[in-house]
Amino acid sequence: MHSDSDDYFSGDDDDFDRQQEIARSAFADMCHDWERNQKYDRALQLTIERLHCEGKEAHVLDIGTGSGLLSMMAVRAGADSVTACEAFRPMADCAERVIASNGMGHRIRLVKKKSTELEVGAGKDMERKANVLVTELFDTELIGEGAIATYRHALQFLLEEGCRVIPDKATVYAQVVECPLAMSWQTPKLLCSSDGDVLLRVPEEMVNCRGSSAVFDVQLSQLPLESFNALSEPIPVFEFDWSSREALKFKRHSRNLLKVQSSGIPQAVFMWWDLKMDLEGTVLLSCAPFWAHPDFEELKTQKQNDSIPEPNLIPWRDHWMQAIYFLPHSKTPLAKGEEIALDAFHDEFSWWFGLNDLSLDPGHCSCGMHIAYSRSRIGQLNDGPRNKRMLNYLEEVLDKNSVVLVLGDGSLLGLSIRAMGAKKVILVETNQTSRHCMERLVEHNGLENVEILSCLDDLTPDATADMTHIFGEPFFTSAILPWENAIQFIWELNRVKALLNHEVSVIPHSFSIYGVAVEFLDLQKISAPLGTCEGFDLSLMDRMIEAVRRESPRNRQFFYSRVVLSLECMEKARSRAFIF
């Protein structure tokens, strides 16, 4: 039976990866970004109009055309010629159909290659060098998708001297903050009993670790203002001139002197960027959170719907967010009025920040904790109310004769059971890195009678003879969605029960899955169809994306935990309960 996806995929093994990429991508999300679309459109209009006023033709190159939207905008703006390139073959095939369906197939030359593979000359990919480049190569870190190298190559081989580039420039901003909430996603904390006794201490190498080098992209506008203390004003730390190859360096450092505006411990840097879309800088696109957004005050005066929270007044987008970068660990507070130097660094793809440190390296996880566990998992480990409720219950049901099997990865609660006085704890740690972290915690806390197994197959009937309890949070590093942890726990629990010849207590006793009906302000745009976008019909791209998601239902889960939003529940209903 023929499906829409058959038009873009041949069915070989590589197509599975391509389908995953489309289903989990933000292609449609970018096109839902009306501000991005309109400001690219306006910049194209201004640029092409100015070239024509100077008596010049406008020959446009669109790198990474995606849906073909920017190329079609260039044609509408009066470009004399347009060449578009797209290396991702299913998307290139889709763009070809979209462009044709909008009646522009004869106006746009679509080349299904990387821009670095394009050839210029008579009868080649480009008949001549372009004098206008329009492209959207950016991510939350601005440079994380290789923008620097792509621009440098285009300026050297594909563009005329003195060409116009859209966008023309980018400015990166940084703000030093004290933010315990962000730190809860970075640094594991000690565990204490209900009496305040320390059950589990965290080794210094885990506390001081620089953490994961992967970008920590968040919707800063959704952080409660009371959750952080801004130690500085936002300041520009770098500018990128996309029209100058000489100015686009792969590695740079800037030292930025600033005055502390509020006393506190410097823990992190909030980062975002903006784009000056045209040469004259008349069109500005900002990715700032609402409290620093240049249009926020104007948008407040234009607010017509009182039900929209202030953080949601600024244009919403999920493909470009803001980022948090953790500073090297410090317990020394800064005083209001103190002058400090914020050192900002970037390489070809990423950023890092420090205070008064000219030689700071990019940093990476050296303790294993940030490799084994995601930031959301570390946040869960640091969830005080959750830990307190579980520990209180464990204190009630366990005693000095308890022998407890812990199922799951990286359970600090499970490890703390031994510190609470249980006779023995057996941990099943299938993840090697997680297992090494738990071994280090056992060593650091001097815990005895703790056995760590690498898999359930190592659990023998003799080892289970004295077992009294089975505990799980549950959490498994292999799980993607929350309920997969519970399902994995059930599966492993049944395997253990097959080895037992006596009853044991299982903690937790049961779990329930809840369904919540909600109305989103913006989040639905991640997977909502486009239809018409800025006057162009993109329904063919809708059909391709929907076909891929329909054939791979798991891909519909791709947006889970992308952002944290405050939602009002319209209806809550227990859908199913499981008893262990």
From TrEMBL:
Q: Where is the Protein arginine N-methyltransferase domain?
A: 225-343
One matching Pfam family is: PRMT_C
UniProt-listed InterPro entries: Arg_MeTrfase (IPR025799), PRMT_dom (IPR055135), SAM-dependent_MTases_sf (IPR029063)
One biological-process term from Gene Ontology? methylation
Keyword annotations of the record: Methyltransferase, Repeat, S-adenosyl-L-methionine, Transferase
User: Is S-adenosyl-L-methionine included in the keywords of this UniProt record?
Assistant: yes
Highest taxon of the lineage: Eukaryota
Whether S-adenosyl-L-methionine counts among this entry's keywords is: yes
PANTHER family the UniProt entry points to: PROTEIN ARGININE N-METHYLTRANSFERASE (PTHR11006), PROTEIN ARGININE N-METHYLTRANSFERASE 7 (PTHR11006:SF4)
Entry protein name:
Protein arginine N-methyltransferase 7
Source organism per UniProt: Aedes aegypti (Yellowfever mosquito)
